[in-house]
């Protein structure tokens, strides 16, 4: 897997997924929307991993490294986004630390 290019298209697509998730907040709790988004990402990434292989044997051989890649990417992205939220927390919540 290659490094992710965060260009305008990347940010626009990410924002469109977030906007869609936000539309569900009127009907269900954020934790349920989050669980569905995680499941959808896992399901789509399983498709991406499978589509990148030429045989079931290759899929079996590369399964664990693909899982490790996506787990590492998710952790890095989650940490980055939480750090951004922490940096803006006081201003957005009208508090001082």
Give a written overview of the molecule.
The protein contains 3 helices and no strands. It has 97 residues and is mostly helical. It has one domain: Helix Hairpins (Orthogonal Bundle). It is elongated, with a radius of gyration of 17 Å.
What is the topology?
Blueprint: H1 8-23, H2 30-51, H3 56-93
CATH third-tier fold name:
Helix Hairpins
The portion of residues assigned to helices is over 70%
Task: Note the overall shape.
Answer: elongated
Overall average residue pLDDT: 95
Number of strands: 0
Low-confidence stretches: none
Estimate what percentage of residues fall within beta strands: under 5%
Structural class: mainly alpha
> What is the CATH level 1 assignment?
Mainly Alpha
- Known CATH architecture: Orthogonal Bundle
- Main sheet summary: none
Please outline what is shown here.
With 97 residues, the chain is an all-alpha fold. The protein has helices at residues 8-23, 30-51, 56-93. The chain is elongated and about 55 Å long.
Short key terms for the protein model shown above:
Helix Hairpins; 97 residues; mainly alpha; 3 helices
């Amino acid at each position: 897997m290659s490094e992710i290019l965060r260009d305008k298209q990347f940010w626009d697509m990410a924002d469109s997924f977030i906007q869609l998730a936000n539309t569900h907040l009127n009907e269900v709790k954020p934790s349920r929307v989050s669980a569905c988004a995680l499941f959808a990402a896992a399901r789509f990434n399983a498709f991406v991993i499978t589509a990148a292989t030429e045989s079931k044997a290759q899929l079996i051989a590369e399964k664990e490294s693909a899982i490790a890649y996506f787990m590492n990417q998710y952790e890095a992205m989650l940490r980055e986004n939480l750090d951004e939220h922490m940096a803006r927390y006081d201003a957005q919540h009208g508090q001082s630390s």
